[in-house]
Give the backbone structure.
Amino acid sequence: MADVQDYKQSIKFETFSYLPQLTPDETRQQINYIVAQGWNPAVEHVEPARSFAYYWYMWKLPMFGEQSVDRILSELEACHREHPGHHVRLIGYDNYSQSQGAAFVVYRGN
């Protein structure tokens, strides 16, 4: 349990924010899980000062039916390059339950 962060040490965003930063391989595995579930990935970003706002800015449109993990990763990286100071997160929308099946911050802004 030494790897789990204390709540007071840093700002929390999503479920994985209580864990150490995901490695690129772990991020790829999470994206693969989203694709395997048939969820539609979408990329969102926001300034750190507005990170607790209800709505984040959407990067392009959701990637309906996207099956390529590399394509999703490239969109995450493109959003991060365009907005280097923003938090960038990936959402997996579940069509069946009409809700978010997964959401996690991939890049933290300054």
